[in-house]
Every structure is written in C-alpha cells, then in structure tokens.
Specification:
alpha+beta, Arc Repressor Mutant, subunit A, Alpha-Beta Plaits, 2 domains, 4-stranded antiparallel beta sheet, 37% helix, elongated
C-alpha cells in the first residue's frame, strides 16, 4: 500500500475511538462520503494497515485488578522467537517485546491479585532460560489509548 495520507489517518483515529461507528458517521467527522470512507477502510484492511476489529474489555470488570510490567534478563542470547514461544501460552502475559537497554524483554502482565501475579511470574521465570526478572506493579493508569 502507498503511504497513508492525512485522510486515512483521520479515519484511523475515528475508528480507534469509535470502532462501531458507521461509514456515514465517520464520513461526517472527516468530511467524506460513506462510500469513500468504506473504500479507504477496505483498502487499509486489504493492505494490512487495519488488522481487524475487536472489543476492548476492561480487565478490572473481569476481576483482573493487578497489572505489572516485568523486565526479563536472560542467560546469554535467546532468539526472540524462542521467548515468544515460551510466553505465548501464558494467558496473564498480554504483551511482550524485546527491548534495548539492560533487560532482554519486557512483558505486560495482568492478574486477579498479587498471589495470582506471583504464580504468573513463577511460570514466566521457569518458561525460558531466564537469569532474573524485575517487576514493576502499576498503581494507576494515567493514559491508555489504542491509537498512534
């Protein structure tokens, strides 16, 4: 796909904030017709810019009230794919990324409470060749957005 233009970006912002809006409603916000919005959205879907549509669930409403970021330090070098394989089946790990700096990876972990978090951390630490980990428990989320 060619580079996104300003109109594509405005449509993406509207979709990120109001995913259930109709093409007509989005068109009103960005000053385009509904068919023009649909064509652009279809093009972004076909090219992979938009990977899908999903419901954003409040983890607190499900009773998962404990949140942490976990820095992982590995023994030696481990391929990112090996780390992904080690953590992909741990449901408490909601995202994981390799990073620069002293740690090898950072994980975003959700749990019901501190005991649940501790159990999840034990599974994370035993799942790969991990030297140690450092956990940072979230007290409050200040900004939580899904758009660029």
């Amino acid at each position: 796909m060619d580079r996104l233009d300003e109109m594509d970006e405005r449509i993406l912002v509207e979709l990120a904030e109001h995913a259930r809006a109709t093409f007509a409603e989005i068109g009103q916000k960005v000053n385009l017709s509904a068919p023009a919005v649909k064509r652009r959205v279809d093009r972004m879907l076909d090219s992979g810019v938009i990977r899908g549509f999903t419901a954003v669930v409040d983890h607190n409403a499900l009773g998962w009230n404990t949140e942490a970021y976990v820095q992982v330090f590995c023994h030696g070098r481990i391929a990112p794919e090996k780390l992904r394989e080690a953590w992909v089946d741990i449901p408490e790990v909601v995202s994981a990324a390799t990073v620069t700096g002293t740690s090898d990876a950072i994980l975003h972990v959700l749990a019901r409470d501190m005991r649940h978090l501790e159990a999840a951390l034990e599974r994370i630490r035993s799942s790969a060749d991990i030297e140690r980990s450092e956990s940072i428990v979230v007290l409050s989320n200040l900004i939580d957005r899904m758009r660029p």
